[in-house]
Amino acid sequence: MDGTVESFAAHGDTLYIAGSFQHVGGQVRNGLAAIDLTNGNVTNWDPNATNGGSAATMINVVVSSDGATVYFCGTFDKVGATSRDRLAAVSSAGVLQDLSATFNDQVLAVRPLNGVIYVIGTFNTVNGTARHGFAGLDTTSNSAGVLNSFDPGIAAFGSANYRASTFSADGSKLYVAMGNSGISDFTDTDGNAATRRGFVSLRVSDGRATSLDLNPMDSGFGAGIFCVSVSGSTLYVGDSFDSLQGTPLQRLAAFNNEVLDPTFSNEPGTGPDGAVRSISTDETAVYIAGGFSNIGTTSVKGLAAMDPATGLPVSTWNPQLSVALGGTDTVVFVHEGKVFVGGNGLDGGADLLGQHISYYGALTAIPKKEVTPPVTVAAAPAIKITGKAKVTVRKSKLTVKGTATGDVTSVTYKVGSKSGTASGTTSWQFPAKLKKGKNTISVTAKGPGGSSSAKITATLK
């Protein structure tokens, strides 16, 4: 492979890659290729996109949930012999689809959902109609590429660093990592102006900004969000920020139902020491790639698996790359038990395509730390003598009764110089033989946790 990978997508045993390459596995492939994961070979799938007769550069590739259609965007003006402007769709069998639109600048991301393809980029017009950075296009065969009502309506949007977007679990919102630290003006769901820095959550029905505002900062200055991923109800975000929503955080954070998750620990000193450039999740772990060499006190270079329950690195999964992956072309992608990573200078792992793609076995479970249960020290039993603490009697024989609670093994007594063991434990009694005058009677309950005593005074007239 003679270039870098910008994006991965997969369905079943097929891995799709997009980037700035012209050859993959000895085959000519202009920025797009498909790899058979059963044998690692490049397949015959080849859209052959070009730009002005030269090889195209691709930025993003995604595949439909049924695997039938592959969407991609980048710098190209033809797919095969057919004109296409920066955006196209090709079937998994290699047939060019009807989707077609024109843009006056870059398309940086595509996201299909329910018959609509959402596009994001640095453009200001789509099909000659004003759309600043965001647009929704119909993908049905009769009107493929026609603009729909999705329009955030901002005055301008531009971010050469933009890379990532994803839908909420219920498909109602599009989460967008805008990459830069600049502020963009959106319209919220009530029709009011809403400023957002680095990240925006857009309602897919119309493009209005929802209330989720991350406000990333770094050393008191505005920062960006470079990567996003969703797993169930949890949204993960990463970049080089040191706080979100006014809360100190170190380059990686989790939001559960759009509320900052305090159990996902990445406060200063515990998170990655370099920018997080890409995030990919499965049901077991959160995989991150970026320009870090340590996460907290753990040496983890360039690629790590994070425990979604704690936000801490999983020590048993640590590829320890020789270089940190801080470049904007860094990408990590987990699919069916394999973790793929793309970027410059890769080594280690299973080499898929030269020094630009490696892969590793994904975690099937996160090992649980062995916890030594605390030693429980039993409490001493408590003892109580029934009746008054001082009694006066006229007979020399007195039956003393009482109770004991807790773990009791025996109850002993002492009357003057005479001692013995009471009958019973939790409910006990014994006969005491008194002498003329004052008699001190003591009772002791014994158990694994110790002993406790009680006394009475009996005066024989």
Structure description:
With 461 residues, this protein is an all-beta fold. The protein has 2 domains: 5-361, 7 Propeller (Methylamine Dehydrogenase, Chain H), CATH 2.130.10; 382-460, Immunoglobulins (Immunoglobulin-like). The protein contains no helices and 48 strands. The chain has a 5-stranded mixed sheet with strand order 42-48-47-44-45, with no helix packed on it. A hairpin with a 4-residue loop joins β32 and β33 (286-290). 45% of the residues are buried. The mean pLDDT is 86.
Coarse morphology:
elongated
Total beta-strand segments: 48
State mean pLDDT (0 to 100 scale): 86
What's the CATH class of the largest domain, please? Mainly Beta
Strands ordered across the widest β-sheet? 42-48-47-44-45
List the uncertain runs. Answer: none
Structural class: mainly beta
Assign the CATH superfamily of the largest domain: YVTN repeat-like/Quinoprotein amine dehydrogenase
**DSSP strand (E) fraction?**
over 45%
In the CATH hierarchy, the architecture of the largest domain is 7 Propeller
Report how far apart the termini are: 110 Å
Q: Quick one: biggest sheet?
A: 5 strands, mixed
* Integer tally of domains: 2
Count of DSSP H/I helices? 0
The third-level CATH topology of the largest domain is Methylamine Dehydrogenase, Chain H
Helix content: under 10%
**Radius of gyration of CA atoms, rounded to a whole number:** 35 Å
